[in-house]
Design brief:
The protein has 319 residues and is of the alpha/beta class. It has 14 helices and 7 strands. One of its GO terms (molecular function) is hydrolase activity, acting on ester bonds.
């Protein structure tokens, strides 16, 4: 959904390496996002006759030994964060709702992320002739779910503020699908670049609302270097070698696009840090963590292989 599988591995290494200072006395993890964070919401929310890719092997084969709804052969970043904090794995919202009476008092957080979700509302894309083939869920939808569930997690407005203040909030990654969907449907890079301010604004609205509800520690990841993704390398294959970075083989203009998103996101985070100086808003630099692996892959183990890039149903690429 939001990235190829090798990009996802990069993000795991980032979190393990750089978030040691975040592991503190938190009571729970509240998570939002897309396929990089979804631990089973999409498969529970989808119609039974609409099979989700993550519901079959090889997804889940290495750690759980069966599909769990995660878009990974094993665990996701949120799983490593939970384990690092001594928590059980954070359950998906749809699963918690199904077993509300028996589980709500014992869980250490809820994961609202849905694979394929966008930061902007689905209407923003539909007005521009863009379809979301996976879901109509947006970050706003996920936030609404959280607000509806909040009274079940705490007893009063004051205790809810305390609960959220003692929680670690993971904001995605979110926003990648706001670009994946239009890129895969033939929209130009110039047009899609005009969407970025709206995407950043949607993320900012969610950050601000969560802080006003009581959140004090939020991790806000940036976008990955999409120009290094096997699906993008296949779709935008170019005979002009100048379009590619000499050291990585990644497509320059697509990575410039991702950096533009990240620049605006960091500016938005800085703005909210000034508005809410008591809050700890942490920018998670997925982009540069991933680039370390693309630049020096041998340092991180052997994962070069022929892979059929099927995100948009065409092509193969070496990665």
């Amino acid at each position: 959904m939001a990235s190829s599988s090798n990009s996802f591995i990069c993000t795991i290494l980032l979190l393990i390496a750089s978030f040691g200072h975040v592991f503190g006395c938190y009571e729970s993890i509240i998570s939002f996002g897309d396929s990089l964070t979804d631990t089973g919401n999409l498969i529970r929310l989808s119609k039974s006759n609409n099979q989700v890719a993550s519901s079959v092997l090889p997804y889940g084969e290495t750690f759980f030994h069966h599909p769990t709804g995660r878009f990974s052969d094993g665990r996701l970043i949120i799983d490593f964060l939970a384990e690092g904090m001594g928590f059980p794995l954070i359950p998906p919202y749809a699963g918690v709702m199904k077993n509300m009476s028996s589980s709500i008092n014992s869980i250490r957080g809820v994961n609202f992320a849905v694979a394929g979700a966008t930061a902007v509302d689905i209407s923003f894309l539909e007005q521009r002739g863009i379809k979301n083939p996976a879901t109509n869920v947006s970050l706003g939808t996920e936030l609404d779910w959280f607000k509806q569930m909040l009274p079940s997690l705490c007893k009063s407005p004051a205790s809810c503020r305390e609960f959220l203040g003692n929680s670690l909030v993971l904001m995605g990654e979110i926003g990648g699908n706001d670009y994946n969907h239009p890129f895969s449907q033939g929209k130009s890079g110039e047009e899609i670049k005009s969407y970025v301010p709206a995407v950043i604004s949607a993320i900012g609205v969610a950050i601000n609302e969560l802080i006003e509800l009581g959140a004090q520690t939020l991790i806000v990841p940036g976008n990955l270097p999409i120009g290094c993704s096997s699906s993008y390398l296949t779709t935008f294959k170019d005979s002009n070698k100048n379009e590619y970075d000499d050291s990585t083989g990644c497509i320059n203009w697509l990575n410039d696009f991702a950096e533009y998103h990240n620049q605006l996101l960091q500016e938005e985070i800085h703005r909210f840090r000034e508005i809410h100086p008591h809050a700890n808003i942490i920018y998670a630099d997925y982009y540069n963590a991933a680039m370390q692996i693309y630049k020096s892959p041998k340092k991180f183990g052997k994962f070069y292989k022929l892979y059929c890039s099927m995100l948009w149903g065409r092509g193969s690429i070496q990665f």
